[in-house]
Amino acid sequence: MRTEPAAPLTQELPDEEDGPRPAFSGPSAEETLLRLARSARRLARAHQATVTLAPTASRPHGVSATSLSRAFEAWGGYSVPPLNPGASRPVLEGGAERPRGWLVVPLRTLEGHIHLFDPESGEDFTPEDEEALTGLAGLADVALETARLREENQALRQEVQLGEQRFQALAGASRQVVWLTDAHGAVNRPSSTWEDFTGQTREEYAGWGWMSAVHPDDHARVADVVRRTAAVLGPYECEYRLRRRDGTYMTALARALPVLNEDGTPREWVGMTVNLASVQVSEDELERRLREEHAARTEAEVAEQRSAFLAEASRVLASSSLDPKATLSTLAWLTVPTLADWCFVDVMDEAGAAQRMAVAHANAADKALACEVRDFPPGPDGSRHPTTCVVRRGESLLVDDVSDAWLRKVAVSDRHYALMKAVGFHCIMSVPLLARGRALGALTFLAVRQSRRYTQADLHTAQDLARRAALLLDNAILYREARKSVLLRDEFLSIASHELKTPLTPLQLRLQALRRETQKGAASIPTSLVVSQLDVVQRQVTKMSALVNGLLDVSRISSGRLTLDKEPLDLAELARDVVSRFSVTANQAGSPVTLYAQDDMRGSWDRLRVDQVLTNLLTNALKYGAGRPVAVRLSGDEVHVRIAVEDSGIGIAPEHLSRIFERFGRAVSERHYGGLGLGLYITRQIVESHGGEVLVHSTPGQGSRFEVVLPR
Ligand code: ADP
Prior knowledge:
Blueprint: H1 29-44, E1 46-53, E2 63-68, H2 70-75, E3 102-106, E4 112-119, H3 127-173, E5 177-182, H4 192-198, H5 202-205, H6 219-232, E6 236-243, E7 249-260, E8 266-275, H7 276-318, H8 324-335, E9 342-348, E10 354-361, H9 367-375, H10 386-393, E11 397-399, H11 404-410, H12 414-423, E12 427-435, E13 438-447, H13 456-501, H14 504-519, H15 527-558, E14 566-570, H16 571-581, H17 583-589, E15 593-597, E16 602-606, H18 607-623, E17 630-636, E18 640-646, H19 679-689, E19 693-699, E20 703-711
Parallel strand pairs: 15-17
Antiparallel strand pairs: 1-2, 1-4, 3-4, 5-8, 6-7, 7-8, 9-10, 9-13, 11-12, 12-13, 14-16, 17-18, 18-20, 19-20
Helix pairs in contact: 1-3, 7-8, 7-13, 14-15, 15-19, 16-18, 18-19
The chain binds adenosine-5'-diphosphate.
Adenosine-5'-diphosphate binds at residues 616, 620-621, 624, 647, 649-652, 660, 665-668, 675-681, 704.
């Protein structure tokens, strides 16, 4: 079926008599059209009436309404014409024109028509019908215009309603008190926020009732402000004390603006009341949060800088050579100005004295001062010098308000005090370079510029850096020691093989001589000859076994297998034996040995080991005694005995004194004096395992005095 009317009403509406219409809702344009069509059909007693309206901006497809008589409906087969005002003839199915009655009159003001088809009488429409229809068309204009106005009005009402709903939602969502008053300040609308805050009921705050929530002392002023503001049409702004629902008052600030009528007169006032204290608190809170955020951001930035700095420091340390001096200097320069204005690196030398390895400064103008600082060594052990204290205690130092009194307290001399003053630092941070439980030195940082302050976080960074630097230093020390050990071992091996070989040559010569005698075929070899050869053999074998025993002792000591077999012993007697054993050697060396012994030199010692101590000391005295007399003195008290072996020989240079008791430690050239450098090492181990000690006093070229103190 070709039934496509634009937006047609396909159903008959109920007659007005059918039931009451809802309030404020009159008929719409479509309903009005339909009523018109119905009225037109009834007026001219037609089977069909159609009212059409041309398309407009609000109805782009136009609109039409058709009313059919019941008989026509029952007959059916008739299509509703499409909405086209120019060609509004009814059409039958198949498109053929229907040659039945058709009357059309235009609407008067709107663009549209009323069509009538098929008079019920079967005759054509009469002029009276046309007249009636024209009259209806005039009325239709009025009805349609009314419907249009009503629709417009409804749209406006919806808009207003939406605005009201939005306002209520906004007021409800606000944490402040929102209110509305009439043009004079009397509340005429409910405010849930006012109720929540003041605890007043609607009835209580309606009109001027809201004033009873205002502090009585503020009434006059508030009323005055309301009056004056109303006179000039706002804005209204007034501070007063408002009672909360718990009965307490808070200082509130009320602000309002007028809503004006078209003529500029005030219609109502929209206002808001805020708790000034909460505004204040929020501002304080905001400031606190800002401060916190700023602090957090600064901290994060500082942390980032620190980790970048530590990463760079690690890179420098990792790429370092095994000579730490250059690396530590680079490191010191890396810390300025990131971490300090001045940075010192002090490292303990082998003798335990602090050496200033590096001095870095942020200000280029301090170059000359830096030279002085570098040349001025940290204080001697035991002094109050900050670095020395840090190394000695192995603990960090942080002073964030260096005072003159503090400088005076730590200064090791006037010069030191003057130098510290010249640098002019107000914060100091010194951290030990700790490795394997000992302090190898210290890193010291000074803050000169006032904006720099040292905190625990800085101290942690410094300690972190010191840990890494200490590792480097320790590696270098271990490497140095390992190299020294290797050199010593190589030296020892060459000396040992030389020493062991030395007795072999005379031994071999004597044995060859004896063999030659036996090959001569003589019946007998003279005893004196055999004895003298065997004497030499015996001496060389003794020498070799002494060397081998020494090596064995060292290995025993190293593996902790040196055990003592103590027994009651008379030291004087033992010393006499040893001295007499050396008589031949002493004669050969041209150094007579004299023994001086006090009475009662008894105690409990390991005989063989004490014999070994005396033997070693006497061997050395004769070896290095330059052919001069040697004295052995025994003395003691109730608790100790003292053995002193003195010679007037070559003596020992002071720088070698600490070394000669070490394994393979020697103070003479192997070309001039044979020996393995083990005698004194073994001596010290034996004495110490008895709970005693060995001391040496020596002057080069004048002789040496070795002293052994043993508990009885
Ligand atoms: P060795 O004598 O085999 O070298 P020692 O351990 O007995 O080894 O002595 C170590 C070093 O101490 C010697 O090489 C020598 O330099 C020095 N020394 C020991 N005793 C004396 C002494 N009485 N006079 C001078 N130097 C000595």
